Amino acid sequence: MTNVKHIVSVILLLHFFACAQEKKSNSANYSYETIVSDIDIPWGFVFLPDGAMLITEKSGTLILFKNGNKTTITGLPDITRLGQGGLLDIALHPDFKNNGWIYFTYASSEGEGSGANTALMRAKIKNNTLTQKELLYKAAPNYSSGDHFGSRIVFDDQNYLFFSIGERGQRDLNPQDITRDGGKIYRLNADGSIPTDNPFVNTPKAKKAIYSYGHRNPQGMILHPDTNTIWAHEHGPKGGDEINIISAGKNYGWPVVTFGINYWGTSISDDTEKEGMESPIHHWTPSIAPSGMCYVTSDKYADWKGNLLVGSLKFQYLNRCIIKNNRVIKEERLLENLGRVRSIVQGPYGFIYVGIENVGIVKIIPKN
After folding, report:
1. Nearest-CA neighbor of 314 among 360, 258, 254, 263?
2. Which is it for strands 327-334 and 24-25: parallel, antiparallel or unpaired?
3. Which of 264, 280, 329, 342 has the smallest number of Cβ neighbours within 10 A?
4. Tens digit of pLDDT for each residue in 52-62?
5. CB within 8 A of 98, min separation 6: which ones?
6. What pTM, to 2 d.p., does this model score?
7. Is 90 helix (H, G, I), strand (E, B) or coil?
8. Is there a contact between 156 and 165 (Cβ–Cβ < 8 Å)?
9. What digits encode the pLDDT tens for the residues 182-213?
């Protein structure tokens, strides 16, 4: 049986490798312009109601870009710069216009153990300074490894707050254990309290904020506007990057099932699927190293409406995923060779903006 599984896995890997090579490049229908320059790693960004941007720089700077000028927002918490950790994603409360709450994730050294782990904070901005700071969640314990902090933030249509934390390089310890942080997607109320219908609120010793588990390192997450479901993608090891539709209490398999292998070529698991574990709707082998994700609802771009846009850190392009019946049926490369694509947002008036490392924020301009 083991040999059969290996053969099936090889066939699947070859199939998806072939699919990866079929991605076509397309620059004929759009151009781009740099809107915000001179940013090393624009991990996340959001548009304010007045059209200004808040941009997180991984090194630990929060930038307000308004009327062509960059202003540094002061008063951030202590941010640990450790490998993949730093200042990460940012989101606005759905009623930001009235309450002013912003939410962000970052690597924090507070708490048990040396090193750091992912934290979630909310705050308001007054006179270009963070005020009313509230730490809503801090994963524990800390780890000295620089791997797999996650992290993305999204609100659903009921104002629940979802955020992801990677397994911090502790693949055999954290992702399958709901009494531990790491390798999870969490759900909170907007004030940081635990929703009473979270899947593990009545499970002894479980982390009550957990919504789903068995994840490796989720760095893209959206609310699907048609189905109001959470979609997330995550880094695989060598191969096996995934897109998943996230459901309450479900186990997404890492590292018990995976399409990937160890970086040095050895097997992680004989299984790519298993009863009781959710299978991805799509995976990339070879890995593209996905970061950021956007669902296109705009009419600005011919044929893009209803597509997913996913950034590739490894191959330095924006990946357009054409979806049918919750499956990726075709892929196309955009914005090739500008740099590592880190974040994607559909902004005001339906234009797509992309955060690219060592470039900044660029706007995709459709050609008439």
Report:
1. 263
2. parallel
3. 264
4. 999 999 999 99
5. none
6. 0.93
7. strand
8. no
9. 999 999 999 999 999 999 999 999 999 999 99
